[in-house]
Amino acid sequence: MRSLALIPSLLMSSAALADIPSVATDITPVHGLVSMVMGDLGTPTLLVEPGASPHGYALRPSQAAALQDADAVFWIGHDLTPWLDGPLDSLASRAVVVELLDAEGAVVHQFREDAVFAPDEHDEHDEHDEHDEHESDVQALDDHDEHGHDDHEDAHEGHAHDGADPHAWLDPENAVVWLAAIAETLSGLDPENADTYRANAEEAQAEITALNTEIATRLAPVSTRSFVVFHDAFQYFEHRFDLSGAGAISMSDASSPSAARIAEIWDAVAEQDVVCVFSEPQFNPGLVATIAGISGLNTGVIDPLGTTLEPGAGFYPALLLDIANSVETCLSGQ
User: Fold this and answer.
1) 177 and 141 within one domain
2) What pTM value is reported for the model?
């Protein structure tokens, strides 16, 4: 009889769980932030699996089903995952869709179009001489290009690389703004648990704000030391922590650097006293290693998507710390 007495409470518990919104997210950093807000109430579905490129992706049947069942979808936006536009329209038509780049209060930077971020002020004669002197080195760097350079790269770089830079999750202040937006959206869908969503968001905001201060303190001693990245995905982190990025070897993670672009990076290495070159784990490090080897620079690895980190509520703080550790180590020469 005691077990029968538990049936009403179990049914009430099941009904309460059934009212929790079904949530889908695009990339792991967003999944982590939503997980922090949902807490023990539920787990969001991750659409882009760790290690996959967010710029082009084919949904698995289970992910398409989750999108179709979603009450809410949180994504960075079209600039990061343009392929998701169609599935959102066709599968998630009944869901509340929140594009985080459009959230009120979010900091959004425009793409940087040039290989070298700082103004190039050396005279043309010196530039020409330096290019001649290192022509064989530039060719060597081309030979290490993991993508296999062809004329498509030059055509690609001829197009304007403008618009909003979507890597906005790398500014922790944006995460603080987004946590509030996530909590308010979920509270609107699930008023009974609104206090929990808001309390979870406030706790997460406090954690990230404290981490922001900690990272700023740690990176301040190396903030004036210049570095080069594989592709330009880190300007939000650079701006937030006042770091001195000098340039990007590749325009994007989907293109190969041309000989002209590599020559610009070579000049920047010499002129801006670059001390470190960062690669990313999903790319062959041969090109980065060659640039660093020729120039005698430190090398490091930074991953904007944290592909080796465990998804979930602890992901976003771990991502910030992982990037901060890599930056501090490489710039300090440890």
Assistant:
1) no
2) 0.81
Amino acid at 112: R
Which of 29, 10, 6, 20 has the alpha carbon at shortest distance from 311?
A: 29
Tokens encoding 302: 């930074």
Domain-embedded: residue 69: yes
Distance CA 250, CA 237 (A): 18
Tens-digit pLDDT profile for residues 190-213: 999 999 999 999 999 999 999 999
∠ CA 266-270-272 to the nearest 5 degrees? 110
**Hey, what are 88's tokens?**
């959102």
- 59 burial (CB, 10 Å; 0-12 / 13-18 / 19+) is middle
Q: Which residue has the higher pLDDT, 173 or 134?
A: 173
Exposure on the CB side of residue 227, measured as CA atoms within 13 A: 32
Taking every pair of Cα atoms in the chain, the longest distance, rounded to a whole number of angstroms, is 94
Cα gap 215→324, rounded to integer Å: 7
Which residues does residue 98 pair with via DSSP β-bridges, in sequence order?
A: 74
pLDDT by residue (tens digit) across 215-256? Answer: 999 999 999 999 989 888 999 999 999 999 988 887 665 566
Range of the domain at 231: 124-159+223-332
Token representation of residue 15: 């009904």
Looking at 145, 178, 213, the residue that finishes a domain is 213
Q: 23 near 73, Cβ under 8 Å?
A: yes
CB 146, CB 286: distance < 8 Å = yes
Contact between 54 and 48 under an 8 Å Cβ cutoff? The reply is: yes
Q: How many CB atoms are located within 10 Å of the residue 235 CB?
A: 22
Q: How far apart are the C-alpha atoms of 145 and 143, rounded to whole Å?
A: 6
